[in-house]
## 1
Amino acid sequence: MGKGSNVQKAQAARERNQKKQGKSEEERRAASAKAAKDATAFVCKLCKQTFMVNARPPVLYLHVTSKHDPGTDPVACFDQLAGFDPNDPKGEKKAAEEAAKKKAAAAKKKANDAANLDLLLDAGLSSGKTSKKKFVK
């Protein structure tokens, strides 16, 4: 059975009033804690400057080069810069190298499989199905 007209109106009014009230105290505390955590996601170990959670490695590297003495190790400021290459900030070269390695490994595996098949065929094994003979008494 469907709900009556008054039930639907009352439910809509409850939803409107809930939206007007906004967040509860518990929801506000949780949102505030999350915002504080996100605001201090990255902290420079040398000068204690904080960076938001969405700061990328190029931004962190820029901080190291512009705010600290030349020759400062980027890893001394941020652990996240351990594998960062300033000449390839987006990681395109690294991704291309990994793709080339995967392609070479696949080609090597394919060649190896073909060589194994040739060895099996040379040994006298057939590659097709054979018909089974039925035993007759």
## 2
Amino acid sequence: MQSDIPVYYEPSLPRSLLPIHLYFPLESAIPVLISSYNMCNDEVYGDWYRGCSHFVKSYYSGTRTDCMQPLCGLSSAHIHHAPNCPCPKAAGDDRRIQSMFHKACEECRGAEFARRVGR
């Protein structure tokens, strides 16, 4: 099965960053890059609920881990300088667990209660 999205290889990038897919959504002039490598991460603290496997964020520490990838819009190694660069500019979360609970989180317990009483 062939994909309708053409594969684009940047010759100056290492082979570990490939594949990178380049496509033009809705016939726009600005291409959108999709890649499979890790992006920059912001450190976030929160609670882990083992009952439902949810991580509830408390706060961000302000520490960002730089991925040093040329196609990450937040990295210091970013290769583009244009303001309309199509590189992704969303950081991931580097989770730090403050407390671990062996029950479901408050939202899941509320949803289960509503399901049981028919609300």
